[in-house]
Design goal:
The complex is a heterodimer. By secondary structure, chain A is mainly alpha-helical. Chain A contains 14 helices and no strands. In chain A, helix 4 crosses helix 14. Chain B contains three helices and no strands. In chain B, helix 1 runs antiparallel to helix 2. The longest helix of chain B has 24 residues. Classes of the chains: A mainly alpha, B mainly alpha.
Chain lengths: 375, 75
């Protein structure tokens, strides 16, 4: 089955919404609990690091644009080592997608529908995700193009409406606790979302190159981090650093504060809608990435039959991996970023180094790869 | 108990939908992999539905990586 290619602009939009996905849910609260009033500086440092990271990923994509990351790894690092590292890589994204599913389930069950069993949210949310994955990357990109304006309109509305409530003294004094807490806040950005951009390496052959992969990739990630920055600054300005760090979902509290006159109230559900949409995009892309990667590795003709079985495994996975919210937050703060860095960043970096050296050595006779064009 | 049979029913319905499409295109490898993964999936979901405690792989990952995280982030 031939994969239709998505355009450069769609790719950039996917990167943007992917970086928004989980981050606007968790980053405002967690970075503020470490960086306090200077959490916005943490996110700025994180964005700069994101430019470097997406630049490296873009370079990996440019090495051999027409083959999949799976074939590239097995070429660069040898079949055995390549396959082992690929399994770790895909397993990482499987865990990531289970976490995303848990995110939306946990948020809905704690804030919106307290009496609903969380499993029903998982199933209800998984059905459109798996449908999107099965429909293919072009469909996902087009759906994202339709969903994106709504996300941006609601975000802009939220930030604009809160302007009168900004209390600028909540930001001062700057650098109150020194530089280390700011860096601790930036550390929390590593696993979410900076190194997770390597999911796009798995779908490289499906992206039209345009001039380069670098521009849409880097610009998408910068804009996404900018949105997270704006949301975090709004949280700190309106709620104050103490209150922001205390709540699990401070942006939701922000939504509760919006009142225009007497008729526009309780618009926090708009924030929930933004989150549903952005997590949908991120979850669909992550699931598509690892299912596509696994079917590449096993050299199957078609990845589509595997969607629903893997959906069932994801459902079981959420229940096995994350027994309760405390475990999830502990895991996120202490373990996730080091693990992400080792797997999602170090493996593409190794592939790039070895692939680049190998490419230079055989610069006259470039190897022919088995048909990815068929795929 | 009924929940376990419900999961099995869903697996069977899924196969009834997917199998003819794969048989039509005659890729044996796809069919084998599909049933393998469906088998694993159904087993896992049935175990979860019966509320049997399964070991959590994330605890292993936490054991390996959390010392570094605790040093970097403290508390």
């Amino acid at each position: 089955m031939t994969v239709k290619k998505i355009s450069s602009r769609q790719f950039g939009l996917l990167v943007l919404l992917y970086s928004l996905g989980d981050s606007i849910l968790f980053l405002p609260g967690t970075t503020t609990s470490f960086g306090h009033k200077d959490a916005w500086i943490s996110i700025m440092i994180g964005s700069l690091a994101g430019i470097v990271i997406t630049f490296i990923y873009g370079k990996v994509m440019l090495l051999y644009p027409d083959i999949t990351f799976v074939e590239l790894t097995q070429y660069a690092l040898g079949k055995l080592v390549g396959t082992i590292l690929l399994l770790l890589f895909l397993y990482y994204y499987f865990i990531s997608s289970c976490f995303l599913l848990w995110d939306i389930g946990d948020f809905t069950v704690t804030q919106i529908l307290p009496e609903t069993p969380i499993h029903s949210i998982y199933i209800l949310f998984l059905i459109p995700v798996l449908y999107g994955v099965r429909a293919g990357l072009e469909t996902i990109a087009r759906a994202t193009e339709i969903l994106a304006p709504w996300i941006f309109i609601l975000l802009i509305l939220l930030i604009a409406v809160l302007f009168p409530e900004y209390k600028y003294e909540n930001l001062t004094p700057v650098f109150e606790n020194g530089f280390i807490p700011i860096l601790q806040g930036s550390y929390l950005m590593i696993g979410l979302p900076l190194v997770q951009f390597s999911i796009f390496l798995l779908i490289t052959p499906s992206i039209k190159k345009g001039k380069s992969y670098l521009m849409p990739f880097i610009i998408g990630s910068v804009l996404g981090n900018l949105c997270t920055l704006l949301i975090t600054i709004s949280c700190i300005l309106v709620l104050g650093a103490e209150s922001t760090s205390r709540h699990t979902f401070p942006v939701y509290i922000l939504g509760k504060k919006v009142t225009i006159g007497e008729f526009l109230q309780r618009i926090e559900i708009f924030i929930a809608i933004i989150w549903f949409l952005s997590i949908y995009v991120k979850l669909t892309l992550t699931t598509y990435g690892f299912i596509y990667g696994i079917s590449n590795m096993l050299k199957l003709k078609n990845y589509q039959p595997l969607t629903f079985p893997f959906g069932l495994i994801m459902l079981a996975g959420v229940l096995i991996f994350i027994p309760h919210q405390v475990f999830a937050f502990d895991f996120f703060i202490f373990t996730w970023h080091t693990y992400s860095f080792m797997i999602a960043f170090a493996i593409p970096l190794l592939v790039y180094l070895f692939g680049y050296l190998k490419k230079k050595k055989l610069s006259n006779k470039l190897p022919t790869f088995p048909s990815s064009k068929n795929y | 108990m009924f929940k376990a049979f419900g999961v099995l029913l869903i697996a069977v319905l899924l196969s009834l939908y997917e199998y003819p499409k794969m048989k039509q295109k005659e890729n044996r490898k796809d069919i084998v992999v599909y049933f393998l993964i469906l088998g694993v999936a159904t087993t896992l979901v049935i175990l979860e539905v019966l509320e049997i405690n399964l070991p959590n792989p994330l605890k292993g990952i936490e054991y390996v990586f959390s010392p570094i995280g605790k040093v970097l982030v403290g508390q």
